[in-house]
Amino acid sequence: MESELQPSAPVRTWTSHPRPTMYSGRVGDLRSVDEIAPPFRHIFSEFTQFNEIQSLVMDDLLYADKSLVVSAPTGSGKTVIFELAMVRLLMNLEDADYGGDFKMIYVAPIKALCAEKFNGWREKFERIGVKSAEVTGDTDLRDFWDLPDCNLILTTPEKWNSVTRRWRQNVQFMRLIKLVMIDEVHILNDPNRGPVLEAVVSRMRNIHRFIGGESEGGMEPMRIIALSATAPNVADLAAWVGHGNTTCFYNIAESRRPIKIDKYVQGYYCDTNTSSYRFDLNLNYKLFDIIVKYSGNRPTLVFCSTRKATETAINHLVNNHPLRLTPDRTNALMEIAEKVQNVELKRCLPTGYVFYHAGMSFADRSLVEESFRAGNIPVMCCTSALAMGVNLPAHLVIIKSTQMYTDYGMEEYPESSIFQMIGRAGRPQFDTFGVAVIMTQRENVQKYERLATGSIPIESYLHEHLAEHLNSEIVLQTITDLASAMVWLRSTFLYVRALGAPVRYGLPAAKDKAQIERNLEELCRTVLNALEKYSAIAIVAKDQGGGEGSDGGDDGLRLSSTLYGRLMAHYCISFQTVKLLRKIKGTEPLLEMFTLLTYCQEFAVFKCRNSDKRVLNELNRSTTASSTIRFPLRGRIQNTTAMVSCLMQAVFGNLPIEHPSLQQEATRMIAIGRRLVKCMVEFISLGPRGSAEDGGVFHALLSTLVLRQCLETKLWENSPFLSKQLRGIGVVYAGQLAARGKVSFQELAETNPRELEVILKKAPPFGNNLVETVRKLPIFEIELVLKQDYVVEVTVTQQNKGYDRQVSVRLSVLVGDTSNEVLFFKDNVEIPPGTQYILQDSFKLQDATVATATGHVVCLNWVGLDCSKVLVINEEAAAAAAAKTSTTEKPRTRKSATTTNNGKGENKKITEYYRKQDPKQVPKEAEKVVETLKKPTENVAKSTNDTCQIDAAPKKRSLDLFQFSQKSKLGRSSSFNTTASSDTTLLEISNKLSRNEPQREVPRAEQTMPSKENLTDNDSGIWDVVEILPKEKSPVQEQRINYFYKAPTLQAARPVKSVSTGGNIIEMLRKEPLLLFGRPEDFGAQRQKDGSKRRVCLFGVFSEVTREGRRSGAAPAKSGVMINGGAQQKNDRVCPQNVREGGQTRKELDLG
């Protein structure tokens, strides 16, 4: 049952005006503005007469209501044609004294054109009570209800496609659409965007027919006006737009353009050994000759394929071909140069050569646009994207190279882009003609000569995206069987073109229309079977009888949508992405879910440019851990997938992205990622719970929820920069706070406001306000209680009485068990007013033999507020699982995430068998490891259940207890005395280390290894264990290590926050006993500048005596395992390269 939208439009009153007679004011063949009724005449106030093309089509536009297709050269005043169509509709409403609401839809291929028309039409039409609204990708519009109260809607095909997919819930709105205007309909020739426009126009017509058939007496006709560049098959467009109804079309020759454009195609030799990039560079040497030959000392616009190419071309012209400028023009350019921010632009502006592209700041672009329109800039090089955006006409237009860089290499420009670039030639106010020169390879000359004369037909690419659009119509129930699928297909431009050129669309050659339709039907069958194979649709037998074996399956089979198909249509994702999501096993950690996201087809719109690879590779492999992404990629950044991963990780990691264009693309990637991850959450949570092999989807769903949190907040879930979420704290301030150890909300709340002001260099009461803001954040707690009959109660509460409810927080509550099954899930939970209880619910366990259940509260839009709870269900099973885990699991699969509400150790990755319900309880496995260290006859690797890649010592001994003596410079250290009291915890030390407090050089020390006989249980320290994950099975590198602090009595242990690896590790080992987990690379293994491999050395128990201790005769300060980066420099060694005891050489790890 449809729920109709009831618009609240004001009642419109019209004032009657006498209509001018047809042809009034006509001069020759040109029609006069006097023909327009007085209330609408101001719309055309910029001129007194319509041009030749506008005059030619005026009768069918202004005095009839038929749909219309006009093919005319770019720049022939086609905007006025749309304005005449809108005036015709308004005149009809006035004549009918219609006081209700109505809608006019303008569809343009890109947002820039919508913005241009919106700015031009808003003021014109508001004078007569017609409100305009721009509804593009930048608009947060989810449904018709969100549409503003307006009459003229300007949108893109993609946006209108997503909106009209919900038309059945908004039938009344669709009835209000009286006029649809399609600009640049030749975009159908674009393989990616053309199918979207084709599908949305066909849907609008089908909706009109469906609603018209339902309503009594039918509905008023919906008029369609489509404008195209010059093309030979305008009749095909008219047949598609009209679909059996009367449709007029005009195919206006290039010769009738108001400002003639002389087109030239210049071919240049390019041998097979010359790359496209080198060919493009070589064209720079031809540019100046073409400018001199064709410009006539008037403004010239040079279109280049990339942003870098625009700057390269300008630099060549500046350095080799200086211009002679008048003093007035030179002074004007100097004034502009003082205002721009871009250094290169500032340098070249006074010469008269300027580049222009989207990578420049908005202020710089505006200054250049204004100066070019004023005629102060003689030559401007810009990207081809400008042709579809800002209107900057020039006398001469040069298309330097007809190829553009894509992920699949250099490809030819889309024909629509060539048309747009050519259309910029000729300035209506100043020129009687324009010139366009296409510079291309010699073998392409004939092709572009045909294109320039408009002899290349407009084709359909819907057959390449048929799965997505068939599925969306099945979801809308426009298609219910094969017969209705063919009815829909006949309404497309693909059908019209396939009848005339079937081979072009992969169909067998045939002249008979019936045979072509049978071939199209077979194409539909193939696509529908593919959708059914991946569970996007269901094909079932109809109730009336028949089945799969019935003749002509369209009579025996019914098509219905499935969950996956509905998600595919709702979120507008591609069929390839659905195939990718179907590969989810259910056990994926965060890294794998993030990687899967980057492989989605929706990111294929981005291009990995050569000019951007330097910045991307620096983010991927920086020399410092603080400026490197969390999950570095192997090799160099070469494709879109790697680019997406790198940029999104840079955003999450608060890393600066140098290039403005990459910043803009990163913002778009985050927006696309948010849409995709919302789909992934529903895809996993609502879909099947997993097969018997994988046992459920709990881990994958938890990882996806965390990934959604990262995309919403633009931070990693364990980010130290979480203060960036607070008002008044940006990227810089968040970095300063993180550098001083303020990495959780609890630490911020407990910090003296004056200290915060000192860190941020702010005046009071900034610190007080910041602390107060943090103290108003919610504190969540989740409780799981096992009741009778294995019913588990889930309670989520908000514990902070000072919580400010103006802070919007949305939660997801997830409970899963040890078998990876999802026991309970509730998404988008809001905090209700007036109570501390956010959620109170329950569920019944289906399997009472599971060991534990874990509940997680994940905030959708905040990092640092999550919490979790573990409930033991079956103690025997839990103990057995712990024992099994400690003996069989590999380090890579033992990682999990824990979250604490106070921010201490948020989302820390630790080895799972060391993680228990009570973090204060020492893991027994740790005791076993320490006990093993006291037995030099056993092997360390065996003591840790063979989880190490290598042994820490020769096999006959666990750790060599040999003596050695070496004076060495240990590097920088913190200001703490190495003989710190045993009460000092590692948490305190790491906090102070992270605050960058003054450091001092550590004096050279005599290090003496105690003998076995001197080791006792009461020794001054506890031995540290290094667990090295297998390199070939290790996940992508993380520049972090997770620690456990252990008191000397082995009676307490607690996790502490991750500390980035570096020189301080050795200092921490010297000060406090640790249990370290990580990989060899984390402890300093890296390649030297000369390509040699650095070595990491693991030693046995040792103790050191500080210089102060030797003077005072103090005992050794601490004992532990020493880990050394093993640098090759002469004066940067902790121990000699060769240390022997009993003829045995110290073990070295070659870690490459």
From TrEMBL:
GO terms for biological process: meiotic cell cycle. CDD domains: SF2_C_Ski2. Residues 1008-1017 have a biased composition (Polar residues). Pfam families: DEAD, Helicase_C, Sec63, WHD_SNRNP200. Residues 994-1004, 1143-1152 have a biased composition (Basic and acidic residues). It is an enzyme of class 5 (isomerase). Coiled coil: none annotated. Belongs to the helicase family. SKI2 subfamily. The lineage of its organism: Eukaryota, Metazoa, Ecdysozoa, Arthropoda, Hexapoda. This is DNA 3'-5' helicase. Keywords: ATP-binding, Helicase, Hydrolase, Isomerase, Meiosis, Nucleotide-binding. One of its GO terms (molecular function) is 3'-5' DNA helicase activity. It catalyses: ATP + H2O = ADP + phosphate + H(+); Couples ATP hydrolysis with the unwinding of duplex DNA by translocating in the 3'-5' direction. Residues 59-249 form the Helicase ATP-binding domain. InterPro entries: DEAD/DEAH_box_helicase_dom, Helicase_ATP-bd, Helicase_C-like, Meiotic_Crossover_Helicase, P-loop_NTPase, Sec63-dom, WH-like_DNA-bd_sf, WH_MER3. Its EC number is 5.6.2.4. Residues 286-483 form the Helicase C-terminal domain. Residues 882-909, 992-1017, 1109-1152 are annotated as: Disordered.
